[in-house]
Amino acid sequence: MNTSYQYSYTNIEELLDILIEKGSVEKKLNAQSVDQQAPAAREPAPAATEQASPAAEQQHPTAIGRRQVQSSDLAFVTVAPEAARHLILDLRDRFGFTHLVLLTAVDYIEEGKFLLTYLLHNYELHHDIGVQVPIVRDSAETAGDRPAEADPDTAASMESIHDLWAQAGTYQRELKEMFGIDFPGSPRVDEPFILEGWDEVPPMRREFDTKQYSETTYFPRPGRSTNDPADYMRQKLYPKE
Amino acid sequence: MSTDINKEDTQTQGGQPSGDQQESIRQVVEAMGEYPGAADASDPQLFCEARPKVEKPFRGVFEKFLNWARANSLWVLGFGTGCGAIELRPLMTSRFDASRFGVAGRATPRQSSVFIIGGYASVKTLKRIVRSYEQMQNPKFVIALGSCTINGGMYWDSYNTINRIDQYIPVDVYITGCMPRPEAILAGFVKLQELIKAGRGEKANEYAEHFDWYKANQKKVIKDWDMPDYNW
């Protein structure tokens, strides 16, 4: 086990415990003035303090909302947008999650938010952790505008991490083009990335009707028919019914 | 000793040409300007300022001879626009041996006479397709591969993939399939040869005839139109 990172852990549950308790651990570290290989970090958190109090969450910006362990090497945590960068930087520099696997977004239009997912990988333990960040989605009225013309106050926006991983800038350009999520300061984020001359709603947003757009723009050939697979197989297998 | 020679060489090769050399270069350039085949700035065909013209076929035996020659030297533009491009590779191998039909690949639009649209075409690719098609010289033919070029195929409701390629450039032969096998592509070439020999490979003239309609369709989907209207 590489001990160059401040926090060592062996399984993903322990990692989440450390992340949740990190505020108190850091306090303990500072109080005791111990070095970076503090064994306190490796101790499993006491069950009594597992639920971080709301006050502690407010004190420490890496307060984690929802935690979800999917398997022995994959977990997801949800954090507020203002805490995300701090947590990601911690995971990279203190927990060994040195690889940014992907950065993507999911459009929860009913809840009025985008869910950004930063998936990080630890090369020593081959663990993945997904940091999920819900950000406020701009309202449907302004979503019809082009991203560049949308009101910067209401447009969806997130802090850029292109200085942590250079390739994050490419993901952020793509998210700007496909979802209209702005990343101020990210290199070339306002330039078109894949699409040329796109002047509609960003195409991966849920309010963009891709079928309707295709029908009104691309000359559909008449006579196209589709078969429902269930119906088709029923007729094939039980033709008398 | 050898370094001295190199030094002399570089001295004579580098730098500005001497006065006599400049004079001779000027004479050559002037002589080229008087040559009848030299570029003339007033030639609209050369500088993309004119619409394409309908070139009426000759009559009788001579046109038949020309069509026979055209049908047996189908040179394909090496522009793989979709996944169908992967089916074109085996055509040239000994198993399928498209050279039997006079089919050969060519690198540039100016040298080729057949444009194979190899499957789905996004709007971004369509822009390049239009440019390449217009740069090809008459007579030119288009073969469209796969269901994507016919009705959009599995990309029929995509936001950036066109549904019918024949709305933007004229198509001589469609080959169905997703993707068609190399045998099917060979059958398509044979069909195209039949069409050409029968004098029905005149889609380039159709493009010139309905030029405004094609241009309007192209400009409807290519929003950032930053090329000349006539770019051959």
Walkthrough of the structure:
The complex is a heterodimer of chains A (about 240) and B (about 230). With about 240 residues, chain A is of the alpha+beta class. Chain A has a domain of about 160 residues: Beta Polymerase, domain 2 (2-Layer Sandwich), CATH 3.30.460. Chain A contains 7 helices and 5 strands; from the N terminus they run ααββαβββαααα. Chain A has a 5-stranded mixed β-sheet with strand order 1-2-5-4-3, with helices on one face. In chain A, strand 1 and strand 2 form a beta hairpin. Chain B has about 230 residues and is mostly helical. Chain B has a domain of about 150 residues: Rossmann fold. Helix content of chain B is about 40%, strand content about 10%. Chain B is built from 9 helices and 5 strands; from the N terminus they run αααβαββαβαβααα. In chain B, strands 3-4-5 form a 3-stranded parallel β-sheet. In chain B, helix 3 runs antiparallel to helix 7. Chain B is globular. The relative contact order of chain B is 0.14. At the A-B interface, helix 6 of A face helix 5 and helix 9 of B.
Short recap of the structure:
With 241 residues, chain A is of the alpha+beta class.
Strand fraction of chain B: 5-15%
The mean pLDDT of chain A is: 78
Structural class determined from secondary elements of chain A: alpha+beta
Query: By CATH's scheme, which homologous superfamily of the domain at 60-220 in chain A applies?
Result: NADH:ubiquinone oxidoreductase Nqo5 subunit
Distance between the termini of chain B: 55 Å
- Helix/strand order of chain A, N-terminal first: HHEEHEEEHHHH
Shape of chain A: globular
Which runs of chain B of at least 5 residues are low in confidence (pLDDT < 50)?
A: 1-15
Low-pLDDT ranges of chain A: 32-61, 140-150
